[in-house]
Amino acid sequence: MGKIVHAQTVIPLEVLEQLKRKTGESATKDAIAKAIEHYLVCPYTHEEPFERRLEEIMRKRREK
User: Fold this and answer.
1) Cys staple from 31: which of 8, 20, 27, 56, with CB 3.0 to 4.6 Å?
2) Who contacts 58 (Cβ-Cβ below 8 Å, separation ≥6)?
3) pTM of the model
4) For residues 23 and 35, is the Cβ–Cβ distance under 8 A?
């Protein structure tokens, strides 16, 4: 297992509540951890611009 560090940030309460709803987690640390994990593994995270990602998603839906 790698090293573990404590990280801290400031975000608006509304954003935190939205993040908890989207992740399905009630604890702040679990919601943030889940969001970070998703960001790291999501194939669309590093693509620019947003329109290209949206086009890819729509193309895949049409192929089904």
Assistant:
1) 20
2) none
3) 0.63
4) yes
